[in-house]
Amino acid sequence: MDRRTRWHLAQDIAVAALIAALGLAEVWVPFESVQGTGSPVVSTAAILVCAVLLALRRVAPLVLVGVPLTWVLCFVATGGDAQVLFFGGFLPLALALYTGARHGGIRTSAAICGSVFAAVILADLFVPELQGPSEVFFHWGVLLTIFLIGIGMRVSERRAVDAAIRAAVAETEAREAALRAVAEERARIARELHDILGHSVSVMVVQAGAAAEVVDVDPGAARQALEAIRTTGTDALAEVRRVVELLRDDDPESLSPQPGIARIPELIEQARGTGLVVDFRADDTSDLSAGRQLAVYRVVQESLTNVRRHAVRRHARRRSGSGSERMARPRVTPDRGSIVTASTATRVLLVDDQELVRVGFRLILERAGLEVVGEAGDGATGVAAAAELAPDVVLMDIRMPVMDGIEATRLILEGDPSRRVLALTTFDLDEIVFAAVRAGASGFLLKDVPPADLVHAVGVVSRGEAMLAPAVTARLLERFASSPSPDSALPPGVELTEREVEIVRLVARGRSNAEIGAVLFLSESTVKTYVSRLLAKLGAHDRVQIAILAYESGLVRPGERTD
User: Exposure check for the chain: N or C terminus, fewer CB within 10 A?
Assistant: First the structure.
């Protein structure tokens, strides 16, 4: 029993004791209100029983049915000659009626109120003293008033409870909305930091690797790489400061006002100082609020930063005004990629929107004797360059302007399935790897890969093999097995022999040619011939594509042993 229940019980005991005291006084002290000649002893017993029941009225409301029943039994026991009491008989009935109307469930309340009304009706029928018009008007008026008060209190409390529930629900929904807003803001900050820090750190890692590769043979190129690292770090720090500034709460007491359209010329002059040609025109901006002016300032600031970062044709045009159509993002002309030719065995095309990454990769690959036949700064240019230059391997960034690396990979392989694409990104997010391999990429590398591993990966992919880390491969195959594509069956008209099915299953399990030969008692050259035949038969680019097809078509299931 909690503290509140104990307090209510104490209150009810006190009220019941007071009513009992008044009733006993009424029985044993001659009051004119006492009618009838029944036994005082029976009346006393009835008063005490009713007092006990009233003391439990909120702990166990249903016991109040016993109050009118007690008086009915009292009349029966005295042969209809019981005493008619006001304090001892009527008050317990009235309190029981009030409790039934206000407290308890619907059935309990109906039982209590119905028993009280039934008892009073019986009393009116069989007790002559209660049949006078004034008596009937009085006790029925009082009882109905008490009943309506109890119902009103019940309705009022119910409304208060409902209002409290609605307020609690509204508060919970507001709190959940705030949490969602926080989560969305965190995701936005994470994307912002990914764009700033992820790409910048990737550039610095690539340039550092390139510098380490050429420092002995070409100190000038190494110095250029180190200068690129310094510049990239400085730009990244400035961008981080900008993000921090955007995340800070506005200080109403700040002495320096928030930047607006009036300060955009300062940004223009800074941009022109870096060699960027900028045209800016502002129409009537007098009706723009401070918040909108701040937004315009940030848009221009970010636009100029993007142009400096991605564009070769260093020209930007910006127009601001009060119309909503003037708030569109600026157009940026990205680096369409220069075509540089050389003459080595493995021909590589670099596709990345960051020029410093391309420069670093070029240094690493050319140092290893590979031929970088061209560069492209976006996916669309990469597709065109791949068709024109016919590289053996395409190093393809995933996130780029104009066209992303996933779509570019798909288009390159549609044009020439013999091409090999090695996907590059800053983070090995499963959805990115999944999409890249689904599009036909033969490998997947992080941009911070060591120079030796980069060269090794290009060599592996150029030989028609797949280049994926074992952990990534396991996640990929599980993903393909759990969510097959709509066209996951074998190509139409393709039938595999029993031996080919065995080889497909072993390839899907990551076995090398030598390991497959040992399991099936075949020579490595024979296995190689089978694999080449399967690549052509299934229209697959490499062994990973064979494994994916095996899982998607049901030839192999996760956890199934193939040997």
Answer: N
For the entire predicted model, the pTM comes to 0.44
What is the gyration radius of the CA atoms in the chain, in angstroms? 44
Instruction: Report whether 352 contacts 378 (CB < 8 A).
Output: no
290 in any annotated domain: no
Counted domains in the chain: 4
Kindly state whether residues 119 and 222 are assigned to the same domain: no
Helices (H) and strands (E) in the chain, counts: 20, 7
Q: Which residues pair with 319 in a beta bridge?
A: 281
Tens of pLDDT, residue by residue, the chain (563 residues)? 678 788 888 998 999 999 889 888 888 876 665 566 667 888 888 889 999 999 988 888 888 888 888 888 887 777 666 777 777 788 898 899 899 888 878 888 888 888 888 888 888 787 777 777 888 888 888 889 999 998 899 889 889 888 888 888 888 888 888 888 888 877 777 777 666 676 677 777 777 888 888 878 888 888 887 887 777 777 776 776 666 665 555 444 444 456 677 778 877 777 666 566 777 777 666 666 666 676 677 677 766 665 655 454 444 454 444 443 333 333 333 343 333 333 346 899 999 988 878 888 888 898 888 999 999 999 999 999 999 999 999 999 988 888 999 999 999 988 888 889 998 877 666 677 778 888 888 888 887 778 888 898 898 888 877 776 555 555 666 666 565 555 555 677 778 888 998 998 888 777 778 889 899 999 988 998 988 888 888 877 777 778 778 877 777 765 555 55
Hunting for tokens 């590398």 — which residue is that? 445
Residue 283 falls within a domain, yes or no? Answer: no
Residue where a domain stops, chosen among 87, 108, 131: 131
Distance of alpha carbon 88 from alpha carbon 19, whole angstroms:
7
Q: Which residue has 């994926």 as its token pair?
A: 468
Question: What secondary structure does DSSP assign to 299-319, as a single string?
Answer: HHHHHHHHHHHHBSS-EEEEE
User: Of the candidates 505, 532, 533, 531, which has an alpha carbon nearest to the alpha carbon of residue 519?
Assistant: 505
**Whether residue 121 sits in one domain with residue 15:** yes
Closest to 58 in 3D by CA, of 19, 113, 17, 96: 96
